[in-house]
Design a protein that fits this description.
With 941 residues, the chain is of the alpha+beta class. The protein has 26 helices and 31 strands.
């Protein structure tokens, strides 16, 4: 009986857990929340990195699991190959077993052979093993120990033991750190078992199935290798690949891992069934059957990747990890649109099928099914709105490429597809490849960089003074005092204006410029915190600093000379403005807010942007739904609890590799951090964190990479109040908070507004209308506690309903009055034969009120020529109308309006039977009415 994939997974775990004393360790999330250097978890060893580095421990020395992995984007990227062959995936499982200073090569080799050949009965004659051949340049000996163990503890054919180069058989975690030789197990799939020479040759007929890594060295920063005191084993075997082998399939996609998904895709799309065809040499890639099968493989693989990534807290976006996921989703959606005929969102409907297949091994999927489907559906709807037009543009670009551009899509077209229609460049490249075309990527990248430069320029008010320019190395500013001093002495080292730098002479008087000093206590804008303001005072003048920016290692004080003169080389006094203090209060509160949002909403919350200034903290974060009032209340409460706890705030520079080991540390994903980073901890000391970095209690505190300025203790923030919650983009929310006096003022404003609402409820008529106009203005613009806004808006809405009812009643009364005045005009109308000439002033009325009066007059008079004037919002309104018989006599309403509207300083026009005009000159309205009467009488006599 053929083994199912579920049984194969369990066989592996049971073999190591039950038979060989390993602890089963659940898979880590595919989103490495605590490692900003890693886009996705891409190997089973990621969660044990601290153990290999010697900075962490576990309560076990042997472990086994199946780790969910994603390889898309970054160093490990299989995205471009998915769908084109039988074995590439963006999402896959890695079966692994580990030893932390316990067993080593002998057991690892013996147990691997035992599982493959005795438990799973793979043909021994098809298996080959590789060992490290050594590297003289590195001073590394051949791994004769592993080669001898293969000969003695297994019954592998000795001729199937191969020596491999460092590239294939020596594993390193990075430029420094743990490393060691590895031994790979390959299987020969050639019909006659003749593939020995193809081992490590990149031939799909002989493939690696298991890698045994023996971590026994440490590489220091000078490149030298020294033996580790404790040796480790780290193995990894691709689950999808070994399942294909054990199920007798040539393709991973033919296994029961994918076949059920293909069935659901076929039933959902009504497309032709999956046939398993592949692009082959000599076969055009745009063959329809091949493209349909590629679509099946891409959609199934990408949907698995998206389901796991979104379950573990990621969201599609425009940067970093989020953009990779958006590319993956749009790639799958495009294949469905073009090759499976799905011109509507459909991927989200497939999510439950992925969950049904995988939730036994990964139960976390079940609780997030709805969330995942909603996120995917929203993304599909967004891309679907532009996809059809984007495809049309691509077709035009492709035709142009064939006729005029040597089969190459112009970079300009690729950029437009990205910028206007949301086509990632790799999607355009795939579509081009399907037509045997290429893309001018260099030109595309040039246009992208221009767009980035424009965006950067748009966000910096100092860009005109400080374009993307570099300063001489000697202008580097020592700004370490920014953390400790509000004023200091320094020396002017140069100035810059209009992109031109000078290191001599007086600073120009008049116009904004940048001033450089050898030392500075000013904070240059970075990490979301705005640049400081203040004053630089010299012996002969002063300079007001309006902004502080960083260019390389130079701190540039942007402002104007306001008195006397400032010269290079002068000793000056630098003084910060009073805005620094509230900015610092808001920054420390931002860290508490970041922590509190994760506590209330979940670990999926990731910082997506921030702005900290003297007025507020604005914080953008990943979350798919509006934050409820109750959740906001809890977030605000947690921040204020931490403020009342009077926690100390600690900051220290720490080697990045040490900082990354701290459990609970947060960093902005995608940011490039230096080798030495500044860690800000609210509560625990930095020494406590480094002494016990793996302690999970650190999750209870705010610990972040941050170069900003902070309070000494949280109580100095006074109090914290959230004043806004809104959507920024799909899957990104924004909250705004204030601290200290601003928080107190927001709460006072809410109390005062509540009082005004109580008073307004006692009013009616014009007084109520005026009161509600003022209250609406306050609700729209005042900083109010966000958790109070809903209640206040509901109360205001009730009173607005009263206003609307009153306004409708008044409008009905006003209309009735207009109709009454119109009736009186008819009674006194001038008559030319049977036709009534009706002109008159209707007082204050709108066009909407005049129209019923016009209709009433034409109906009652049977034959009439009408011109009514009224005042509306300080202007003259003119409305003319003719009955059909009058129009037949050549007297037209539009002609009348064009004749008399200029009298009141305006113009107008319209149809023969009705026309409208007006002007600003109220005083001349009577004259216009007299002219209208004469004009009508002359034409009807």
């Amino acid at each position: 009986m053929q083994r199912t994939s579920a049984r194969i997974r369990q066989d592996f775990i049971d073999f190591f857990v039950s038979r060989h004393g390993h602890a089963f360790v659940p898979s880590a999330p595919v989103i490495p929340h605590n490692d900003p250097t890693l886009m996705f978890t891409n190997a089973g060893m990621n969660q044990f990195k601290d153990v290999f580095l010697g900075t962490g421990t576990r309560p076990y020395v042997r472990a086994a699991n199946t780790q969910k992995c994603i390889r898309a984007g970054g160093k490990h990227n299989d995205l471009d190959d998915v769908g084109k062959d039988t074995y590439h995936h963006t999402f896959f499982e890695m079966l692994g077993n580990w030893s932390f200073g316990d067993y080593f090569k002998k057991e690892a080799i013996a147990w691997a052979w035992e599982l493959l050949t005795r438990e799973w009965n793979l043909d021994k004659s098809r298996l080959h093993a590789t060992v490290f051949e050594g590297d003289a340049a590195e001073g590394l000996d051949p791994d004769d120990e592993a080669a001898e163990l293969w000969r003695t503890v297994t019954d592998i054919d000795p001729t199937h033991i191969h020596r491999g180069r460092k590239k294939d058989n020596f594993w390193e975690m990075g430029d420094t750190g743990p490393c060691g030789p590895c031994s790979e197990i390959h299987i020969d799939l050639t019909p006659d078992r003749s593939g020995g020479t193809l081992v490590n040759a990149g031939d799909a007929r002989v493939i690696e199935i298991w890698n045994l890594v023996f971590i026994q060295f440490n590489r220091s920063s000078d490149g030298r290798l020294t033996p580790l005191p404790a040796k480790h084993v780290d193995t990894g075997m691709g689950f999808e690949r070994v399942t294909a082998l054990l199920q007798g399939k040539r393709s991973n996609y033919d296994t029961d891992i994918f076949a059920p998904l293909f069935g659901v895709i076929q039933r959902t799309t009504n497309a032709a069934a999956y046939r398993g065809t592949l692009p082959t040499p000599g076969q055009a890639q745009h063959d329809r059957h091949v493209l349909i099968d590629i679509a099946y493989r891409v959609i199934a693989d990408h949907l698995r990747c998206l389901t796991f990534a979104l379950t573990d807290g990621a969201l599609p976006g425009n940067e970093g990890r989020g953009y990779v996921l958006r590319r993956i989703l749009r790639r799958a959606f495009r294949y469905g649109w073009q090759y499976l005929g799905m011109h509507e969102p459909f991927l989200h409907r497939l999510v439950p099928a992925v969950v049904d297949l995988m939730d036994e091994a990964f139960p976390e999927l079940r609780s997030q099914t709805r969330h995942v489907a909603e996120v995917i559906r929203d993304e599909e709807e967004s891309f679907g709105r532009t996809l059809e037009r984007g495809i049309a543009l691509f077709e035009d670009a492709a035709q142009y490429a064939v006729r005029h551009h040597h089969g190459r899509i112009k970079g300009e077209d690729a950029f437009r597809l990205h910028d206007t229609y949301g086509f990632p460049i790799d999607l355009t490249q795939i579509m081009a490849e399907e037509k045997n075309l290429s893309v001018d990527v260099a030109e595309y990248e040039r246009l992208m960089e221009q767009a980035r430069e424009r965006a950067r320029a748009a966000t910096s008010g100092s860009q005109d003074i400080l374009p993307a320019m570099a300063f001489p190395a000697w202008t580097a500013t020592d700004d370490s005092a920014k953390y400790s001093h509000l004023q200091m002495k320094s020396t002017i080292s140069g100035w810059v204006q209009d992109g031109r730098f000078s290191d001599h002479g007086p600073v120009p008087h008049g116009g904004r410029l940048g001033l450089l000093c050898r030392q500075s206590c000013f904070y240059a804008e970075q990490g979301g915190q705005v640049g400081d303001r203040g004053e630089i005072i010299g012996p002969n003048g002063s300079f007001v600093v309006e902004d502080t920016q960083r260019r390389g290692d130079a701190v540039v004080h942007v402002g104007v000379v306001t008195r006397g003169s400032i010269s290079v080389g002068e000793t000056v006094s630098l003084k910060l403005s009073d805005l620094r203090r509230p900015t610092v209060m808001n920054h420390t509160s931002t860290h508490l807010l970041n922590w509190a949002l994760r506590e209330v909403l979940g670990d999926h919350v990731q910082q997506k942007g921030s702005l900290v200034d003297a007025d507020k903290t604005r914080f953008d974060f990943s979350h798919t739904a509006a934050v409820t009032d109750e959740q906001l209340r809890r977030v605000e409460g947690l921040v204020n609890d931490r403020i009342r706890d009077n926690l100390a705030v600690y900051a220290r520079d720490v080697p990045q590799k040490d900082a990354l080991k701290i459990c609970g540390l947060r960093a902005v994903f995608g940011e490039k951090y230096p080798d030495v980073v500044r860690v800000v901890s609210i509560g625990p000391t930095i020494e406590e964190l480094l002494a016990d970095p793996a302690n999970r209690k650190w999750w209870q505190f705010s610990i972040e990479f941050c170069g900003g300025t902070h309070l000494a203790r949280t109580s100095e923030a006074g109090s914290f109040c959230l004043v806004e919650e809104s959507a920024v983009a799909r899957g990104i929310r924004r909250v705004v908070g204030v601290t200290g006096d601003a928080a107190a003022e927001a709460r006072r404003a809410a109390i005062e507004l509540s009082r005004r609402l109580d008073e307004s409820a006692k009013l009616d008529g014009p007084a109520l209308l005026a009161a509600m106009d003022a209250i609406s203005e306050t609700l729209a613009h005042a900083a109010l506690p966000v958790i109070e806004k809903s209640r206040l808006r509901d109360r205001a809405a009730e009173l607005q309903d009263r206003v609307r009812v009153a306004q409708k009643q008044q409008a009905r009364q006003d209309t009735a009055g207009v109709l009454d005045r119109a009736a009186r005009l008819l009674d006194g109308a001038l008559r030319i034969g049977s036709t009534a000439i009706i002109t008159g002033d209707m007082g204050t009325a709108s066009v909407e009120q005049l129209r019923p009066a016009i209709d009433s007059l034409r109906a009652r008079a049977s034959s009439a020529a009408v011109l009514l004037a009224a005042e509306n919002e300080g202007k003259v309104v003119l409305l003319a109308a003719m009955t059909a018989d009058v129009v037949a006599r050549g007297v037209k309403a539009g002609d009348l309006i064009r004749e008399i509207a200029p009298i009141v300083g305006g113009r107008g026009g319209g149809k023969p039977d009705i026309a409208q005009g007006g002007g600003p000159d109220l005083a001349r309205a009577p004259e216009a009415l007299q002219a209208a009467t004469k004009w009508l009488r002359d034409r009807l006599t």
